[in-house]
Amino acid sequence: MALTVSAALTLAACGTFDGGTASSSDGDEQTLTVSLQFTPRANYALETDDALVLTQVGCLETLLTYDDEAGALRPALATEWRQTAPTVWEFTLRDGVTFQDGTDLTADAVARSLRHVLDADTPPRAFTPESVSAVEAVDDATLSITTPEPSALLPYRLASGNTGILARAAYGDQGIDPIGHCTGPFTPVSQVAGQSISLERNEDYWGEPAEIAHVEARFIAEGATRATQVQTGESQIALGVPVTSLADLRDDDDVEVTEEFTPRTTGLYFNLARAPFDDLAARRAVQAALDLDAMASGVYAGGAQPAVGPFAPGELWAPEDAVAPTRDPAAAERLLAEAGYEPGELSLTLLAYTERPEFADLAAVVQADLEAIGIDVEVRSSNYSAIEPSLLEGDFDFALLSRNHLTDIADPLGYLTSDYSCAGSYNISQHCDQDIDELLSSANTMDAPEDRATVYGDVARHLQDEAITAFIVHEQTYAAHRTSVSGFVDDPLARYAVTADVTLGRS
Amino acid sequence: MTFLVKRLMVLAVTLFVVSFVVFLIPYLTPGDPARKILRARVGDLDADPEALAGLRETYGLDRPLLVQYGDWLGGALRGDLGLSYTSRTPVVDMLGGALTVTAVLAISTLLLALLVAVPLGSLAAVRRGTPVDTAITTVTQAFVAVPEYWLAPVLVLVFSLQLGVLPSAGWEGPASMVLPCLTLALRPMSYFTQVTRASMIDVLGSPHITAARARGLGFGATMLRHGVRNALLPVLTLFSLWLAGLLGGSVVVEVIFSIPGMGRLLYESVVNNDVPAIQAGIVSLVGLAVLITTLTDVVHAWVNPTVRAPHVSG
């Protein structure tokens, strides 16, 4: 009886395993295993964040790519792009590119692919009918994209993973089938939903073919598990390593840790539509009361830097002279008095959400810092969905939010417009300044990235000087890889992990 | 027969009530369902108004709740549990895969627990009052308090990181089952041991054991034929309760070991407000729990004749 049960159980178990081969150690120079932090959950629909997984594993490619160090667009599947009329952009496709199923990359195939995203029931922010009115093939190698209004940013939309190009056969009734339908250096050959995707080198890749023959990408939600996998050698690369694992990883001679700023800043968003934060002095009082160094080193254990504004130092858009405010309780008390509040008079509610675990500690530090200048703070913490109605209806004093300023395209215009323009779709601060609106509007038609950077720098300075938001920290991301891995770059925008440049030797 | 009909009616009513309550919960909690669905697809707090409008239209989220529930119920009765809001694939397929994984994990865990607990509990009972009994009782009582979120990393540290003999995560073969099973088995093993011990002590003092020994049956044979079989009844009941609980999935273990089971699926469905997946998942689990309880009663009757034929003794 027991034997029968055991045998049945073993058979049943075998049927549930994903059939992947666990590669261990660094012995196999042909197979690279990578632990990714994001699990695709929308069946690889390109209008969702699943598109990033396909770009990370070297499958999905876009017409252009964004070089974040140079702050410029680079050719990818398109080699040239130009504005032929105020609202029309034309893209010349790279010659000789084929999809992994052998079909040719033509303008018609690209147009079809882009229209699929545009027509989705939830189009991605990078490519919506509000920003793009038509996509058409001019000839086999030329694509035309029309915008409702003149837009200098249209090419940036074609560098977003959401506008990746797949072969016609990828679009079926059951959703996207990425197996064998990309153009990248690696061809997906099999997948296990929610677990992993296996890829092989694309021998017909239009660029320099990869050295690595096989890639096994595992989706591991738990950060500590990803860190362990790279230590045991089960994975050679782990993305999104948690701060708590850094010490162990750095002690391991076979592992290297890299760190990058993410385009994400955490801040205290004030409700400018009601007292006390309708008063500049009250906002500045809070700004002066916060100990950003302590938050960055304590709450984030060094995994973040005190914020100098919405953009991190080193980003193109951060003003060169921007510095993080230093804690000055005496100045904070003076400013509070200037705003007309006695110590102990103000009693406020701070909203925070539990999806970001560090917010519990961060809220406690804010509470303590403000108590020191006589502001009583009650923290209301719950999941984001529960506090969202209060935020959208303006029924709050201030809230802790972590915002990605490159959420749609590699340009912060979308973020600045949604969060800080008068009609912004996420203007929960209820900030409205016609000058800022005009600045943002002008940026949309500026061709030169440096001109736009000047505008964004001016807006960032305004937000900081007027304490529209008390920016707290710029978040960093960590990745770990075995020393046997060469050519790996931890992309701060999380677009790439496995590229043709990654090679695997012995550690 | 009447017993089975009654059980089936209870099952139907239970499933109906549970499905209605589960359907209501996401709508009774604060937040716009369309925004929750969109956030699950695009990890951004800001939502595009056009996309929200599209979602409301696609899923009919503006319709009255009862109409939405009626639609779901009609589909469910035809065997169509709908499409997941997040993956847009049939919920049935998602549940089938996850439930199989969790069932394998749960049954393996409990068999492992039983294999250790029954001999250990029997030994403690036979050696009652001796240092062996004290050691077994103390250790198993301590094991009850060991949390999974602590045990799992410790096991990974020892067996994956230090010894390098077992995978630290994944669901890729029998070896990948070992650490999750060990993590999950510790607590049921402790309970099973204690219940086996208590039950065996009762059985050992009963007249039919004395009678069996008096008939000249050896100690080992008496234990196997009369002792363990009778002592197993309460353990079986406990087994079925644990099984029903574990089929719901262990979120902690499935997340830490990256196992694509029910716990992880339901957790992610709740986070993503994937109502069709939550609805179908909970209803399936409740159905399974009722089914397991019924089966346990049947097995109970098989092991203990006095349960299945009360009229004979009465």
UniProtKB/TrEMBL annotation, chain B:
The keyword Ribosomal protein does not apply. Residues 99-296 form the ABC transmembrane type-1 domain. Signal peptide: none annotated. This is ABC transporter permease. It is found in: Cell membrane. It comes from the Bacteria. The lineage of its organism: Bacteria, Bacillati, Actinomycetota, Actinomycetes, Kitasatosporales. It is a multi-pass membrane protein. Keywords: Cell membrane, Membrane, Transmembrane, Transmembrane helix, Transport. The keyword Repeat does not apply. The chain crosses the membrane at residues 7-28, 94-118, 231-257, 277-303. One of its GO terms (cellular component) is plasma membrane. Gene3D superfamilies: MetI-like (1.10.3720.10). SUPFAM superfamilies: MetI-like. Belongs to the binding-protein-dependent transport system permease family. GO terms for molecular function: dipeptide transmembrane transporter activity.
